[in-house]
Each structure stands twice: as C-alpha cells, then as structure tokens.
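Researcher: We're teaching a course module on how sequence relates to structure. For the next exercise, students receive a sequence and then see the predicted structure as tokens, so they can try to spot secondary structure elements on their own. Here is the exercise chain.
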Amino acid sequence: MQRPTIRRGSRSRRARTHAQRGVVFLFTSYLVSFTLLVLVTALFVRSANEVRLAERSTQLSQAFWGAEAALDKGVTDLQTKPPPYLALNGCTSSTSVSLVGTNTPQGNYRTCLDAEDTTTGISRYRILASGTKGYTSEALSAIVQYQVPTISFSHAAYATGGISLRNIVTGSMDSRISRLLARTAFHGDLATSATTVPAGRRGLVLLNQGSTVDGDVYVGPGADPAALVYVAPALVASMSIYSSGASQVTGALKNLSKATVLPPVEVPAYATNLGDRLSLVESSSVAHSLPGGGLNNYQGPTCLEPGTYVVGNLTMGDGGGKGELCTTGPVDLYVTGDLKVWGGDFYGQPTGTAPFQHQYAPENLRIFKQGGGYCFLVSGEGAATIYAPETNNVLLMGGMRFVGGLIAPSFDFQGIAGGYAGSSWYSRGYILYDEALRGKAIPVGPAKLTTLLWSRSASAAQSTAPAVAVKVLPPPSVGQPVTGGCSF
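Model: And here is the predicted structure for the students to work with:
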C-alpha cells in the first residue's frame, strides 16, 4: 500500500493564507472599533453641545424674563410713585428687582428723562431694563409718555365766581431773582371765568376801601368787563365806619380767551399721611423736621422734606402764638379737611435750603385743598400755591402777605380795617403773583402713561462675566438762583 505524500510548499501556502486572513480580521476589527469610537465621540460632543445650547437658551429666556419684570416694575413705579426729579437727559441710579423663587435671574432698571414740556405737563421717560442669568443677559427699553391733569397759575388769583377786595393790594415779585418777599407793581392780575353778576352784588369783581390791583382784571369770555368790575370811590368817615382812599386798577379790564376747567383734587396713594389734624403753634420746643417721629396734635415750627404729604385738617396759630411751616425742596401737600391760618408763616424754599431760612420759592409748596370746608389766611406770610377747586369763598383777612398763586371758586380778600391810600404796609393785606410760576403746568390728579415705543436689544452671552450695564450720563448740576432783594 502506497502512503500519500505531502508537499512542503502546499503547507506553507495554507499557513500564509491563514495569517493574511487574521491580519484582515484584526484590521477590520480595529477599523470598526475606531469608527464606533468616532461616532460615539461625535454623538457625545453633539449631545454636550445640545445640552449647552439648551442651557443657554434657558438662561436666555430667564434673562429675558428678568429684564421684562424689571421693565414692568419701572413702568409701574412711574405710574404709582411720584416721578423722579431729573434734569433733562438725566437718569436715576439702577434699581434692582427681586423675583420670586429660587435660582431666579437678576433684573434692574433705571429711568431717564428724555423730554419735558412744562406748559402742558407732558413728559417723556425712557426706561432701561436688563436681566442677567449666568453669563447671559437681555436688555429691554421702553419710551413712555407721562401726563397728568394740570393747571397753570397765570394770575395772582383765579376764580370761577366772584372776587371781593377790601383794603387789599395786589402786585408781583419774581422768586428767581429775589427769595425775599418783595412787592413790585404790575402783573398782580385777578381773573374770573364768570360772565354775570350774582344777585345782590354790585359787581362780579368788587374793589372797596382803597384796594389797588397793580395789574389787569379779567372776566369771562364775551362779557362786558366794565359792567362786571366795580371800583369804589374814596370814602370818608361820615359815609363809612372807616375812611379810605379810592380803589383803582392800574392796568386794564379785559376778557379771558377761554375759561379754565378745574379738575378735582385726588390724593395720590403714595402720599405720606401726617394724620387727621396737624396744628402748628409757636413753641419753645425743638423744631421738627418731617417725616420722622410721631406727630402730636400740636407741633412747633415744622419743615417738610421734599415729597408728597396728606393731612386731614391743617391749622396754624390756633393754640397760641404763630405757627411756622416750611419746606427744604419741592413739596405737594394735600389737605382733605380745613385749612386755617390764624397766624403764622408757611412757605416753600429752594432744594437744599436749611429749614426756616425764609428763602421763598412758592412753587416748592403746592397746597391742594380737597372738598369744601374752610380755607382762610388771617395773618403772617405765605409763599405757596393754593389750589382749592371745590372750596367756596376762600378768605384772606387781616395783614396776611401772600406770594404765589391762588385758584378757587370765589375769594373774599379783607385787609386790616382802617387802612387807606398812603398808610403803612402793615395795615393792608397783600396778594403777590410770583413771576416764576408763569407758563408752568402744575400737575394735579393721577398720572396717565402711554407706551410710545418698546424695543429689545441683541442678547449677549459672555464667557467670563455678565453683560455690561448700559452707560448713561449723570444729570447736570443745577445752580441756585441768586437771593436777596428789597422789601415792601
């Protein structure tokens, strides 16, 4: 039997074939593994990017919510709080807004004054808001028109009914030139929008007992001024209890171009409440500066810090001696009951003035009298504006010297009896118009806001720090007017 023969070359070829197959398999395995690694890595990177994008998108939304909340808060504060005192193009400091919840974004806003028209009472504010979450920020802005019902003090006294003067002199001064009570002739105008004489009166506007209007007298549109204004001749003791010189109007008798509508007084919700009654009397106790501390029924000399206040009844001098009320800047004082000044001084002062300096700035003490009741000024000095659209027969009696402006349905001005032309100043009552009030609109009533423009700035994601706040210029400094002047 013949044995098979195995050739050496054939075995070698089979071995090489198996080796090549192993190399191919390993190479293929490596290639597949590498491809899978690349794919897994790509998927991981993509997932990480998507997570980062989702996180950034979430932060961007949260930053927008923060900016939106801050913008809403800025608009609401402008609606419900007193408007900030700003120079044109000036801005407030940044105000932070607290958001409810954990891990919430940060929000802040600032308010800038873009435009102001003092003749119409319309202002335009720009509210800049920003929100920040992580390193992502959003910026929003809104331009709103701020308008409140306004009145203008264009006359020493303006009525919708009758005006009576007895031993009274009107005139004017300019608190921008002199902070002292200094009378100058002219522009002590009186005006009434009425056009008929009430029954039982000699005239709609009565000048008796040596009264002098250093200025013009206006009556309602279309009426005959000569028929409505009565100017009394000189009186002697046999004709009257007291003698007096002839009354006179140094200017002209004129007609108003239109009657002014007097909006009612509404007390702002943000007004600081001074209580149901505040009685100011002369006292040896330490002077009070409000707000701060409790208010007793009777107070010594009191000076109000800039702000808005409301009081039920305000009286001065009824508990003995003279009361004193001043301001250290702009003050709106709402009186919902009676205003009775038996004796004392009440006056506004320029911003930053120390208390009780008698540096008169009538526009910085604006008194708004709500409803009926009493409103009378007997003796002392007053530097203010008084708006009492529902209080009939506002009285100025005795030797009161008042500078500023008065608006009410009717007036009865009575100087000290016995005065006559040529007598010394203290025997008369004086009503002086402040020229600094001319052309200015005094706000009265709640504000109305209208959004004119709303915009969203491009969002910015920063790698190392939150977004930089908007940079604005600080308000320019405002100089104080020169003080000094002459007296009566």
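Model: If you want an answer key for the exercise: The two ends are 161 Å apart (CA to CA). Residues 174 and 435 are 5 Å apart (CA to CA).
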